[in-house]
């Protein structure tokens, strides 16, 4: 779809790169403001506002101008950024006894949406004989449906939220200096860097090795589909008694195997490498969300820990594709970039093991458990 947009607008490569980087920058830069919005409006109205923003941003991109395209992307990114931060708090508040299952379903929906969008956007546009602008706008219909489904929740929770408003309006102090918060943040940042850097270049790695472009694109979608399974299973297994630290280590080993395979035999074992990467990276993303919920004693802490972790994580992730591309250009191949990604899995596993210890990132109270 990006190539179609470039052809239709005449945008430069740099502008195309900005278009793909803008959402990540929104996720990182706007994450710190989400808890404040949630405290001021309440969780349900704030989430309703994010859906309105996504609808408006999607509609804005129908206007035939570069400013509208970039501006609409920022508005959509802002809506998703706030929702990403607040939803772990909702899980903590409403599903405290089913955290593993709900985190798995939430993470699975993130992977499923990405895989669905990557796989069907272009075919649907061709089947309906639509241009790229209306085709992108079709995804706004899902936001409209979500808005209609969520709207009754706002009225239902208004009375209950008012009763909790006194405590919830006060921010958590000292979180940015708490060691547990930084372990969770470090895991979110390193797994985000690994995922987005790999996703940006996996098709290119395959085509450089001789794979057809259409096949390379399908391989990325195939990996995302396997990521759905990894994202769902890891928090569910954690809820059933499997140590989260062990799951973090297994996810890193699977991911390392995928990267090593891409460095040594990218074409011959492509399906196996995509399976390993999908399962490993899917598990890591879901565990990052689980750590946010489990290391928070209440909704207020969950929203602010989510804000901290996602701010750092997505800003770090935004540098990943740029850094990996620079290393590739300097070395003339993909072996060194892949080795770097494998090496980064070591500190990712280390902070994952630390974040898996049962204690809270709660500066205002003594850590619980050990």
From TrEMBL:
Cellular component GO terms, alphabetical: plasma membrane
Bilayer topology: Multi-pass membrane protein
Protein location: Cell membrane
Domain Major facilitator superfamily (MFS) profile: 180-370
Domain of life from the UniProt record: Bacteria
Gene3D superfamilies: MFS general substrate transporter like domains
Matching InterPro entries: MFS, MFS_Cyanate_Porter, MFS_dom, MFS_trans_sf
CDD domains: MFS_NIMT_CynX_like
Residues annotated as transmembrane: 12-34, 46-63, 69-91, 103-124, 136-154, 175-198, 218-239, 246-265, 271-293, 305-328, 334-357
One Gene Ontology term of the molecular function aspect: transmembrane transporter activity
Pfam families: MFS_1 (PF07690)
Entries under PANTHER family matching the protein: 2-NITROIMIDAZOLE TRANSPORTER, PTHR23523
Annotated protein name in UniProt: MFS transporter
Organism from which the protein derives: Streptomyces montanisoli
Lineage of source species: Bacteria, Bacillati, Actinomycetota, Actinomycetes, Kitasatosporales
